[in-house]
Amino acid sequence: MPTIVRTHLTALRALLVMTVLCGIAYPLLITGISQAVFSDKANGSIVKADGKEVGSSLLGQNYNLPKVNPDDPKEEPKPDPKFFQPRPSANNHAGDNSGASNLGPNSDDLLKAVNDRRAAVAAFDGVDPASVPADALTASGSGLDPHISVAYAKEQVNRVAKERSLPADTLNQLVDKYTEGRSLGFLGQEGVNVVLLNKAVSEAK
Known about the structure:
By secondary structure, the chain is mainly alpha-helical. The chain has helices at residues 3-37, 39-42, 108-125, 150-164, 168-177, 194-203; strands spanning 46-49, 52-56, 147-148, 179-180, 191-193. The longest helix has 35 residues, at 3-37.
């Protein structure tokens, strides 16, 4: 058998072996381990309510009122006062992509957006504009962050309590329950998972 043929056959065998090992055996092994050890996280940390999938605890989402005219693309969505609101998102919390606005600190557009959000949040929550937390005014880098600061969550308690006819103490306890500590114990700040919080609020009586 010519050398060139033997070389090609050897390469083909190596390709087939590596394809089976790396393309089939290894993925199946890792998938099996992940499903056995942490199935919930491996499947996207899905949040369910009444047996229905309502989101993921890893992805922020909008909590808006239904549109008056669903077919009108120009109609601006309005936040639902019965829910804790997430931080702004440059991509409208679209789960199929992520990204920031890429506006720098010297951008007039960013300054206007922050001022507009400050006024809107203050009016919506019935608070002094000067007390609105920074994360209520600026979007996260991914636009998908499900967390807000404890300060922003606490700011919204009275509004949600009034809309749902629930005691503010009950909601404050839920905020504390869904407050997560710093990453690795020292990175970043404490945050409240809005997706899990809103699910708990919807179930509260």
